[in-house]
Automatic annotation (TrEMBL):
GO molecular function, one term: magnesium ion binding
SMART domains (UniProt xref): Transket_pyr
A Pfam family matched in the record: Transket_pyr
Protein's organism: Streptomyces xiamenensis
Transketolase-like pyrimidine-binding domain span: 2-168
Gene3D superfamilies according to UniProt: 3.40.50.920, 3.40.50.970
SUPFAM superfamilies named among the record's database cross-references: Thiamin diphosphate-binding fold (THDP-binding) (SSF52518), TK C-terminal domain-like (SSF52922)
Protein name: Transketolase
Length: 300
């Protein structure tokens, strides 16, 4: 199976042939995958070099001309480093584009903390009007990419990961999917967290919602699921900073007595590089530890 990032490169290269409005802006990272596409469309595939602020600035400029720019690099260089440009060159100017990231929270541990971005979604939450997709499978990444490209002039963030679920789900870029129902609480699994969550809740009487689009937050589906449960207790398992979506849960259930637990990547930096699965375990996001944390919270 190809990776999300490989699927992104292949699909975007085809879309460049089909859609004259589409453009791609790179900052060295990922350039080899777009060599042929750049040869066919030298005016719409731009590599600005290792200049991430310029990456977003050029994307904003292309959007002002009427193009639909896709800006791609590692999440730490796409959201954290050029955050001011996201705020001004896109948001303040009233134009949109598609950010497509790689490396996520710790997908490439050998790159060190400079290449990790567990705070990216929380940062975007401080800005207005962003749609955030977090696919859990390459097929979902393709579906959500196509959705983002076709989304008019909206501001969209597509967060790719090396971690994937075993099978894709029928995502639509809006709603949470109800994978199973139970009366003991609600567990919301975001993107690539689903596989570990399903392992963690095996045999438990809980509802499992799958979220591949987290902004806007699907409050309606969560409210429906919470109404089925004996108590409106909600656990959100996210592949970035823990608690990133607890405010959205609280807002969705503001008129309902409820409790919420946010599980995800902690603020403490894990300084040993290790491997992806070791980082998951270190953050308490492996199935065994998730089960302990979820049952400890939902237990009467």
């Amino acid at each position: 199976m190809d990776t999300m990032r490989e699927r992104f490169t292949a699909v975007t290269s085809r879309l460049l042939d089909e859609d004259p409005r589409l453009a791609v802006v790179l900052a060295e990272i990922g350039r080899d995958g777009f060599t042929r596409a750049q040869g066919r469309h030298p005016d719409r595939v731009v590599n600005v070099g290792i200049r991430e602020q310029l990456l977003v600035g050029v994307g904003g400029g292309l959007a002002l001309t009427g193009l639909r720019p896709i800006m791609h690099t590692f999440a730490s260089f796409l959201v954290e480093r050029p955050f001011e440009q996201l705020k001004l060159d896109l948001g303040h100017q009233g134009v949109g584009g598609v950010l497509v990231s790689a490396a996520g929270s710790y997908d490439w541990p050998a790159g060190g903390f400079t290449h990790m971005s567990p705070g990216d979604v929380a940062l975007l939450d401080s800005l207005d009007g962003w749609t955030v997709h977090v696919p859990g499978h390459p097929d979902e990444a393709e579906a959500l990419l196509r959705h983002a490209v076709a989304a008019g002039d909206d501001k969209v963030y597509l967060r790719l990961s090396e971690q994937t679920n075993q099978e894709p789900r029928a995502v639509d870029g809006a709603r949470f999917l109800t994978l199973r129902e139970g009366r003991g609480g609600v567990v919301v699994a975001v993107g690539p967290m689903l596989e570990n969550v399903l392992g963690a809740v095996a045999g438990l009487d809980v509802t499992v919602l799958y979220a591949s689009t987290v902004r806007p937050f699907d409050a309606a589906t969560l409210r429906t699921a919470a109404a089925v449960a004996e108590a409106a207790d909600v656990v959100v398992v996210e592949p970035y900073h823990e608690g990133t979506s607890t405010r959205q849960v609280n807002d969705a259930l503001a008129d309902v007595p409820h409790r919420v637990l946010g599980l995800g990547v902690g603020r403490r930096e894990l300084r040993r590089y290790g491997q992806l699965d070791e980082h998951l375990t270190g953050q308490g996001l492996d199935p065994r530890t998730l089960r302990e944390r979820i049952t400890g919270f939902l237990a009467p």
